[in-house]
Amino acid sequence: MATTSFAIAPSPKTRSKTAKGLPIDPNAHPGVKIQSPISDYLATLVSQNSKDNPGANAAYIPELAAVNSDQIGACITTVDGYVYGAGATSVEFSIQSVSKPFVYALAIEEHGLDWVLKRVDVEPSGEAFNELSLDGEQLPKNPMINAGAMTTHSLIGEGKYSVDERFEHIRKGLSAFAGRDLGVDEGSYKSEIATAFRNFSIAYMLRNYGAIKGDPGDVVKGYTRQCAIRLTAEDLAQMGATLANGGKQPVTGVQVVSPETVRQVLSVMTTCGMYNEAGHWVCEVGFPGKSGVSGCVLGVLPGNLGMATFSPRLDVAGNSVRGVRMYKQIAKEMVLHMMLPPPPARTVIRRDYLLRSAEGEKIVVVSLMGAVNFTATERIVRVLQSRTAAQEAHTINGLVVDVRRVDQVYPVASRILAEALRRLRATGHKVVLVDPGNILLGELGKGSPTGIDTAPGDDAAADEIIGDTSQFESDKWERIPFSPQMMELD
User: Fold this and answer.
1) Active-site residue 201, yes or no?
2) Is residue 34 left, alpha or beta, with left meaning phi > 0 and alpha meaning psi from -120 to 50?
3) Given 275, 311, 364, 365, which residue is catalytic?
4) Class of domain 12-333
5) Would residue 324 show up in a list of annotated catalytic residues for this protein?
6) Where are the chain's structural domains?
7) Which of 151, 160, 463, 489 has the fewest CB atoms found within 10 Å of its own CB?
């Protein structure tokens, strides 16, 4: 696969006005008269978790041991680029191990997932992040522990990049995730490399078993500099929002990595991102996370937001004590656990109603919204069946499906809905799609094969595709109630 060239956004001083020409922070919009309660909620979250400060700074890196341990902050970035924060969100720190998922993503983009899986496994280790261990195939157990992360680092430009070139590619890649140019904390790098004896041991072990191909010393130096990339909690929340947004940076609009790569990265973050506390994290927080020994913790709620916390003191597993605590609190109070999703099957139907013309013609209008996946499609088809069923109270002549508020349609949804509409047409119903962007069916709406047996006769999915519903909103149409029979499949 081709090496990615990254576009870098403006500096943080100008970045806040690059999203569609408007400030990112909704509280900063001209004319806004109220502050969002979300900002107040984060301020309360930070305040409540500032009352004590257990744990200890990472003592094995002198630069981190000297960091002010009283600092604490939390930041959230939505997938459309809005930022909410409280506390120390503009304080710079080194990214440390939170760089691992992003470099893993860059390696997958460069080489492809199948190739990367031949070099780094994806199984939880159940061990400390700096354990000297490989799996039965002599591979690092996953890319979130140091052995796997150093291997992943070495895969970037393997065989063609110098140490400096590899690092610069990684720095630019992480900058693309953040939406601005990121620098390096040279003090952190020098402090960590001077005491990186265990990482040197891991690297020589990896070279001995062929997991890395280059010089072990060069790999440790490059990996340590990767961990010294400097950023803020706001930057990290932006990086998380890029992953939550399917790899597209929400402010710059740059597609940094593919959605398929994001799926792999978030899967590994979920099972391995918090080391030997990963099980507790999944049960109590419930979405992908990654911690760093500088005290930062990254969280990603796919399709929704990226979150970052910063508090330097760590627990025995190397995770920020107050950072993890804030994640547990917000996940519980805001019901963010991925096992407690909203019911998309019901929310996809925005509204549906029955119209009757002066001539007695009756049509059903079904308005859809949000993302249309398999379970949502099942709900839509069931409503179409119910509203067009033959019964005494009403004889339906036509169907209008309005998809202007649909954000995303999965391929399986397009295939199933195309065939459902074709079958309705085959029974004599006129089908009109309100879909100016042709988002619902795409090429399938033009008679292309769906992979499902089609109804006999005309294979087009709709009689007509229009831009709005104005023709059905005139005085010629009267809204009338559905009969009880038309609601039976709800």
Assistant:
1) no
2) beta
3) 275
4) alpha beta
5) no
6) 12-333, 344-487
7) 160
